[in-house]
Amino acid sequence: MTRRKLIVLSAWVILLAAFLILFFVTRPKTAGTQSQSSSVQSQTSQAAVSSRKKTAPKVLPAKIDWQAASEKKAYPVFSENPGAWVQVSLKEQLVYVKAQDGRTLYTMYCSSGLDNTTPTGTFYIQAERGPSFFNPSLNEGANYWVSFKDHGVYLFHSVPTSADKSYNAAEAEKLGHPASHGCIRLTVSDAKWFYENVPFNTKVVIGD
Predict the structure, then answer these.
(1) What is the structure's pLDDT at 13?
(2) Segments in the chain forming alpha helices (H)
(3) What is the mean pLDDT of residues 155-183?
(4) Which residues of 33-50 are buried (b: 16+ CB within 10 A; e: fewer)?
(5) Model confidence at 33, in pLDDT bands (50, 70, 90)?
(6) Which residues contact 180 (CB under 8 A, 6 or more apart)?
(7) Angstrom distances, CA of residue 96 to CA of 12, 134, 183
(8) Which of 7, 68, 85, 113 has the fewest C-beta atoms lying within 10 Å of its C-beta?
């Protein structure tokens, strides 16, 4: 009888030992799997957020300061960026100064033409430019104009001026939305820089 009890007790000890071994051997694997799963989920979530950041459209501020520079940083220097060119996004109502390799050097707010009156395609800055103009038939003018098509017809220029040469605030506040007769309107500061610094024959690409 004692021997039989000993055998039964030994069997229980063996079963208990086997159970403990299985428990402690398999437990780290489960924890590792959970940790790996959490890591993968975290990476996937971060990738999704990153993707949304890359594809999120630019949002214009509620009110654009039509007299100031569009960015806080200094304007680019064309002599330090050979091959720099200009891109106009009609969809975003933004003008990008681009490096030759496509990097954006500077971004400006703009207003293109109402009813798709701004021509699209590839153009080059022409020889015609000037400090100001006034069109009596439109009762509207602008400062710091630079021609990019048809030699004085399609221009980059400041927000509009009135007959007395003062800026038309009602029109200027439309910056960031199509508003012109086909030209590209810029803030006063941006237009002045464009007039003084963007050289003849600089490539201009206009599209969506």
Answers:
(1) 62
(2) 2-55, 169-172, 188-197
(3) 98
(4) eeeeeeeeeeeeeeeeee
(5) very low
(6) 111, 112, 113, 114, 117, 118
(7) 80, 27, 16
(8) 7
